[in-house]
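Hello everyone,

My group is preparing for a crystallization screen and wants a predicted model to guide construct design. The compound we'll soak is zinc ion. Before spending weeks at the bench, it would help to have a computed complex in hand. I've included the protein sequence and the ligand's SMILES below. Output in C-alpha coordinate form would be ideal because that's what our pipeline reads.
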Amino acid sequence: MAADLNAQVEAFLRNATRQRKTEDRAIRQALQALAPVLTRIRRQVEDSGLLETTVGRQQLITTLAAAIARQVQLDWGAPILADLQESLAPWIEQQQSFARRMVETAGGTLTAPGAAAAARQPAQIISTAIVNGKPLAENLTVSLPALVADKVQRLAMMGGEVFAEYDSAVVRVVENSVEATIRSGVHASGSFAQQMIYAIEADPVWLDAQGLVWTATLDSRVCPICVGLDGNRYKLGESGRYFDGTSKLDPHLNCRCYLIPYVRAGAGDERFATGDQGTEQIGFGTKVSSWIQDNPETARAIFGQKLGQRLIDGKLTLDKAIKEWAS
Ligand SMILES: [Zn+2]
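Reply:
Good plan to model first. Here are the C-alpha coordinates for the complex, ready for your pipeline.
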Protein backbone atom coordinates (compact mmCIF):
# COMPACT_ATOMS: atom_id res chain seq x y z
CA MET A 1 0.00 0.00 0.00
CA ALA A 2 2.68 2.51 1.04
CA ALA A 3 4.45 2.24 -2.29
CA ASP A 4 1.37 3.57 -4.12
CA LEU A 5 1.12 6.66 -2.04
CA ASN A 6 2.88 9.77 -3.17
CA ALA A 7 5.32 11.57 -0.93
CA GLN A 8 2.81 14.06 0.34
CA VAL A 9 0.21 11.51 1.32
CA GLU A 10 2.95 9.51 2.93
CA ALA A 11 4.00 12.54 4.97
CA PHE A 12 0.40 12.86 6.21
CA LEU A 13 0.23 9.19 7.11
CA ARG A 14 3.55 9.32 8.89
CA ASN A 15 2.42 12.32 10.85
CA ALA A 16 -0.87 10.68 11.83
CA THR A 17 1.02 7.59 13.05
CA ARG A 18 3.43 9.78 14.96
CA GLN A 19 0.52 11.58 16.61
CA ARG A 20 -1.09 8.31 17.67
CA LYS A 21 2.18 7.03 19.18
CA THR A 22 2.81 10.32 20.97
CA GLU A 23 -0.70 10.26 22.43
CA ASP A 24 -0.46 6.62 23.50
CA ARG A 25 2.84 7.19 25.26
CA ALA A 26 1.56 10.28 27.09
CA ILE A 27 -1.63 8.46 28.13
CA ARG A 28 0.33 5.48 29.46
CA GLN A 29 2.51 7.80 31.49
CA ALA A 30 -0.48 9.67 32.95
CA LEU A 31 -2.45 6.52 33.81
CA GLN A 32 0.53 4.87 35.46
CA ALA A 33 0.93 7.88 37.72
CA LEU A 34 -2.80 8.03 38.41
CA ALA A 35 -3.29 4.42 39.56
CA PRO A 36 -1.52 4.65 42.95
CA VAL A 37 -3.23 7.98 43.70
CA LEU A 38 -6.69 6.48 43.14
CA THR A 39 -5.80 3.37 45.17
CA ARG A 40 -4.66 5.54 48.06
CA ILE A 41 -7.90 7.55 47.96
CA ARG A 42 -9.95 4.38 48.03
CA ARG A 43 -8.07 3.12 51.09
CA GLN A 44 -8.42 6.48 52.85
CA VAL A 45 -12.19 6.50 52.41
CA GLU A 46 -12.57 2.87 53.49
CA ASP A 47 -10.32 3.30 56.53
CA SER A 48 -12.01 6.52 57.62
CA GLY A 49 -15.10 4.72 58.89
CA LEU A 50 -17.03 7.36 57.01
CA LEU A 51 -19.02 4.87 54.99
CA GLU A 52 -20.70 3.51 58.15
CA THR A 53 -21.15 6.87 59.85
CA THR A 54 -24.71 8.17 59.85
CA VAL A 55 -24.49 11.42 61.81
CA GLY A 56 -22.94 14.35 59.97
CA ARG A 57 -21.92 12.12 57.11
CA GLN A 58 -22.70 14.56 54.35
CA GLN A 59 -20.56 17.25 55.97
CA LEU A 60 -17.66 14.82 56.42
CA ILE A 61 -17.87 13.68 52.82
CA THR A 62 -17.89 17.26 51.51
CA THR A 63 -14.76 18.03 53.53
CA LEU A 64 -13.13 14.84 52.32
CA ALA A 65 -13.95 15.64 48.68
CA ALA A 66 -12.18 18.99 48.89
CA ALA A 67 -9.11 17.24 50.32
CA ILE A 68 -9.24 14.64 47.54
CA ALA A 69 -9.31 17.30 44.81
CA ARG A 70 -6.24 18.96 46.36
CA GLN A 71 -4.47 15.65 46.70
CA VAL A 72 -5.06 14.69 43.05
CA GLN A 73 -3.91 18.12 41.96
CA LEU A 74 -0.66 17.92 43.95
CA ASP A 75 0.15 14.24 43.52
CA TRP A 76 -0.93 13.84 39.90
CA GLY A 77 -2.17 16.92 37.98
CA ALA A 78 0.75 19.28 38.56
CA PRO A 79 3.53 16.67 38.08
CA ILE A 80 1.82 15.24 34.98
CA LEU A 81 1.56 18.68 33.44
CA ALA A 82 5.29 19.22 34.06
CA ASP A 83 6.07 15.79 32.56
CA LEU A 84 4.01 16.54 29.46
CA GLN A 85 5.63 19.93 28.99
CA GLU A 86 8.93 18.12 28.77
CA SER A 87 8.00 14.90 26.97
CA LEU A 88 5.84 16.60 24.31
CA ALA A 89 8.41 19.25 23.38
CA PRO A 90 9.82 17.14 20.51
CA TRP A 91 6.26 16.65 19.22
CA ILE A 92 5.74 20.41 19.04
CA GLU A 93 8.98 20.80 17.11
CA GLN A 94 8.01 17.99 14.72
CA GLN A 95 4.65 19.64 14.04
CA GLN A 96 6.38 22.92 13.27
CA SER A 97 8.78 21.24 10.84
CA PHE A 98 5.80 19.47 9.27
CA ALA A 99 4.02 22.80 8.72
CA ARG A 100 7.17 24.39 7.29
CA ARG A 101 7.42 21.50 4.84
CA MET A 102 3.76 21.98 3.95
CA VAL A 103 4.47 25.60 3.04
CA GLU A 104 7.62 24.91 1.07
CA THR A 105 6.35 21.95 -0.90
CA ALA A 106 3.29 23.99 -1.91
CA GLY A 107 5.54 26.66 -3.38
CA GLY A 108 5.31 29.12 -0.51
CA THR A 109 8.15 30.90 1.22
CA LEU A 110 9.02 31.17 4.87
CA THR A 111 9.61 34.87 5.36
CA ALA A 112 10.45 34.54 9.05
CA PRO A 113 11.86 31.05 9.64
CA GLY A 114 12.41 30.32 13.33
CA ALA A 115 10.12 33.14 14.48
CA ALA A 116 7.58 30.70 15.94
CA ALA A 117 10.14 29.24 18.35
CA ALA A 118 10.98 32.72 19.58
CA ALA A 119 7.30 33.63 20.00
CA ARG A 120 6.30 30.74 22.20
CA GLN A 121 8.07 27.89 23.98
CA PRO A 122 6.78 24.31 23.56
CA ALA A 123 5.96 24.09 27.30
CA GLN A 124 3.76 27.15 26.96
CA ILE A 125 2.00 25.80 23.87
CA ILE A 126 1.27 22.54 25.68
CA SER A 127 -0.14 24.08 28.86
CA THR A 128 -2.32 26.53 26.94
CA ALA A 129 -3.63 24.08 24.31
CA ILE A 130 -7.42 24.25 24.48
CA VAL A 131 -9.19 21.04 25.45
CA ASN A 132 -12.90 21.05 26.21
CA GLY A 133 -12.91 24.84 26.09
CA LYS A 134 -10.18 25.19 28.73
CA PRO A 135 -6.38 25.21 28.69
CA LEU A 136 -4.78 21.79 29.14
CA ALA A 137 -3.10 23.03 32.36
CA GLU A 138 -6.52 23.79 33.84
CA ASN A 139 -7.90 20.43 32.72
CA LEU A 140 -5.07 18.59 34.48
CA THR A 141 -4.79 20.63 37.66
CA VAL A 142 -8.42 21.65 38.25
CA SER A 143 -11.05 19.84 36.17
CA LEU A 144 -9.75 16.26 36.45
CA PRO A 145 -8.98 16.51 40.21
CA ALA A 146 -12.51 17.92 40.66
CA LEU A 147 -13.92 15.01 38.65
CA VAL A 148 -12.18 12.47 40.92
CA ALA A 149 -13.50 14.24 44.03
CA ASP A 150 -17.01 14.38 42.59
CA LYS A 151 -17.10 10.69 41.64
CA VAL A 152 -15.74 9.60 45.04
CA GLN A 153 -18.21 11.88 46.82
CA ARG A 154 -21.22 10.50 44.96
CA LEU A 155 -20.17 6.94 45.63
CA ALA A 156 -19.36 7.55 49.30
CA MET A 157 -22.79 9.10 49.83
CA MET A 158 -24.34 5.78 48.86
CA GLY A 159 -22.44 3.83 51.51
CA GLY A 160 -20.07 0.91 51.95
CA GLU A 161 -21.80 -1.63 49.78
CA VAL A 162 -21.94 0.65 46.76
CA PHE A 163 -18.39 1.82 47.42
CA ALA A 164 -17.26 -1.66 46.34
CA GLU A 165 -17.95 -0.43 42.80
CA TYR A 166 -15.05 2.02 43.09
CA ASP A 167 -13.23 0.50 40.10
CA SER A 168 -16.08 0.99 37.65
CA ALA A 169 -17.65 4.12 39.15
CA VAL A 170 -14.47 6.07 39.83
CA VAL A 171 -11.32 4.54 38.36
CA ARG A 172 -12.61 3.62 34.92
CA VAL A 173 -14.56 6.86 34.47
CA VAL A 174 -11.59 9.00 35.44
CA GLU A 175 -9.22 6.97 33.27
CA ASN A 176 -11.45 7.53 30.25
CA SER A 177 -11.51 11.27 30.91
CA VAL A 178 -7.75 11.37 31.30
CA GLU A 179 -7.33 9.50 28.04
CA ALA A 180 -9.65 11.83 26.10
CA THR A 181 -8.07 14.93 27.66
CA ILE A 182 -4.53 13.89 26.83
CA ARG A 183 -5.37 12.67 23.33
CA SER A 184 -7.06 15.99 22.64
CA GLY A 185 -4.26 17.92 24.34
CA VAL A 186 -1.59 16.33 22.15
CA HIS A 187 -3.63 17.05 19.03
CA ALA A 188 -4.54 20.60 20.05
CA SER A 189 -0.96 21.52 20.91
CA GLY A 190 0.32 20.00 17.65
CA SER A 191 -2.36 21.77 15.66
CA PHE A 192 -1.56 25.07 17.38
CA ALA A 193 2.15 24.58 16.67
CA GLN A 194 1.31 24.15 12.96
CA GLN A 195 -0.89 27.26 12.95
CA MET A 196 1.95 29.30 14.43
CA ILE A 197 4.07 28.53 11.37
CA TYR A 198 1.31 29.69 9.01
CA ALA A 199 0.60 32.78 11.09
CA ILE A 200 4.15 33.84 11.94
CA GLU A 201 6.63 32.29 9.54
CA ALA A 202 4.90 31.87 6.19
CA ASP A 203 4.81 34.63 3.62
CA PRO A 204 1.49 36.34 4.44
CA VAL A 205 0.91 37.45 0.86
CA TRP A 206 1.19 33.88 -0.35
CA LEU A 207 -0.99 32.42 2.41
CA ASP A 208 -3.60 35.17 2.59
CA ALA A 209 -4.64 34.78 -0.99
CA GLN A 210 -6.17 31.39 -0.30
CA GLY A 211 -6.19 30.97 3.46
CA LEU A 212 -6.47 27.67 5.28
CA VAL A 213 -8.75 24.73 4.72
CA TRP A 214 -10.33 22.44 7.34
CA THR A 215 -9.12 18.91 6.69
CA ALA A 216 -10.85 16.07 8.52
CA THR A 217 -9.38 12.61 8.85
CA LEU A 218 -11.82 10.73 6.66
CA ASP A 219 -12.49 7.24 7.97
CA SER A 220 -15.22 5.38 9.86
CA ARG A 221 -14.27 7.10 13.15
CA VAL A 222 -14.71 10.66 11.91
CA CYS A 223 -17.60 12.50 13.54
CA PRO A 224 -20.35 14.05 11.37
CA ILE A 225 -19.57 17.55 12.68
CA CYS A 226 -16.05 17.31 11.26
CA VAL A 227 -17.38 15.80 8.04
CA GLY A 228 -19.48 18.97 7.71
CA LEU A 229 -16.48 21.19 8.37
CA ASP A 230 -14.24 19.44 5.86
CA GLY A 231 -13.31 21.83 3.09
CA ASN A 232 -14.28 24.99 5.04
CA ARG A 233 -11.96 27.90 4.28
CA TYR A 234 -10.52 30.31 6.83
CA LYS A 235 -8.39 33.41 6.61
CA LEU A 236 -5.82 34.27 9.23
CA GLY A 237 -6.96 37.25 11.25
CA GLU A 238 -10.65 36.59 10.54
CA SER A 239 -12.54 34.37 12.89
CA GLY A 240 -14.99 31.79 11.64
CA ARG A 241 -16.79 28.76 12.97
CA TYR A 242 -14.25 26.77 15.06
CA PHE A 243 -11.51 29.24 14.17
CA ASP A 244 -10.55 32.18 16.38
CA GLY A 245 -8.61 34.11 13.77
CA THR A 246 -5.28 32.49 14.48
CA SER A 247 -5.93 28.88 15.36
CA LYS A 248 -8.37 26.03 15.17
CA LEU A 249 -10.86 25.36 17.96
CA ASP A 250 -11.73 21.70 18.29
CA PRO A 251 -15.47 21.07 18.02
CA HIS A 252 -15.25 18.05 20.33
CA LEU A 253 -12.83 15.88 22.30
CA ASN A 254 -10.58 13.62 20.25
CA CYS A 255 -10.85 15.81 17.16
CA ARG A 256 -8.30 14.75 14.52
CA CYS A 257 -8.81 17.59 12.01
CA TYR A 258 -6.14 19.99 10.83
CA LEU A 259 -6.11 23.31 9.05
CA ILE A 260 -3.66 23.38 6.19
CA PRO A 261 -2.83 26.02 3.58
CA TYR A 262 -5.49 25.89 0.87
CA VAL A 263 -2.90 26.34 -1.86
CA ARG A 264 -1.86 22.77 -1.07
CA ALA A 265 -5.36 21.54 -1.48
CA GLY A 266 -5.98 23.68 -4.52
CA ALA A 267 -2.87 22.48 -6.30
CA GLY A 268 -4.51 19.14 -7.10
CA ASP A 269 -2.64 17.46 -4.26
CA GLU A 270 -4.00 14.33 -2.74
CA ARG A 271 -4.69 13.14 0.77
CA PHE A 272 -5.61 9.80 2.22
CA ALA A 273 -9.04 8.59 3.23
CA THR A 274 -9.99 5.22 4.66
CA GLY A 275 -13.29 4.06 3.22
CA ASP A 276 -14.99 0.80 2.22
CA GLN A 277 -11.94 -0.32 0.20
CA GLY A 278 -9.31 0.55 2.81
CA THR A 279 -6.91 3.48 2.63
CA GLU A 280 -6.94 5.34 -0.67
CA GLN A 281 -5.70 8.59 -2.10
CA ILE A 282 -8.35 11.11 -2.95
CA GLY A 283 -7.92 14.52 -4.49
CA PHE A 284 -8.25 17.49 -2.14
CA GLY A 285 -10.82 18.78 -4.57
CA THR A 286 -13.07 15.76 -3.94
CA LYS A 287 -16.17 16.93 -2.11
CA VAL A 288 -16.76 15.11 1.15
CA SER A 289 -20.37 14.48 0.05
CA SER A 290 -19.22 12.45 -2.94
CA TRP A 291 -16.72 10.54 -0.81
CA ILE A 292 -19.66 9.64 1.47
CA GLN A 293 -21.69 8.44 -1.54
CA ASP A 294 -18.80 6.32 -2.77
CA ASN A 295 -18.34 4.66 0.62
CA PRO A 296 -21.77 3.55 1.86
CA GLU A 297 -20.49 1.15 4.50
CA THR A 298 -18.24 3.81 6.00
CA ALA A 299 -21.07 6.35 5.78
CA ARG A 300 -23.34 4.05 7.82
CA ALA A 301 -20.55 3.68 10.39
CA ILE A 302 -20.19 7.46 10.66
CA PHE A 303 -23.88 8.43 10.74
CA GLY A 304 -25.41 5.26 12.14
CA GLN A 305 -27.30 2.66 10.07
CA LYS A 306 -30.58 4.51 9.54
CA LEU A 307 -29.34 8.01 8.96
CA GLY A 308 -26.41 6.75 6.89
CA GLN A 309 -28.73 4.78 4.62
CA ARG A 310 -31.07 7.73 4.06
CA LEU A 311 -28.06 9.83 3.18
CA ILE A 312 -26.77 7.27 0.66
CA ASP A 313 -30.25 6.86 -0.82
CA GLY A 314 -30.30 10.59 -1.47
CA LYS A 315 -33.26 11.15 0.86
CA LEU A 316 -31.21 13.61 2.89
CA THR A 317 -28.60 16.20 2.02
CA LEU A 318 -25.32 16.01 3.90
CA ASP A 319 -26.18 19.20 5.82
CA LYS A 320 -29.55 17.80 6.88
CA ALA A 321 -28.00 14.49 7.94
CA ILE A 322 -25.43 16.32 10.10
CA LYS A 323 -28.19 18.41 11.71
CA GLU A 324 -30.27 15.32 12.44
CA TRP A 325 -27.27 13.49 13.83
CA ALA A 326 -26.46 16.39 16.13
CA SER A 327 -30.01 16.82 17.41
ZN1 LIG B 1 -12.52 17.05 13.94
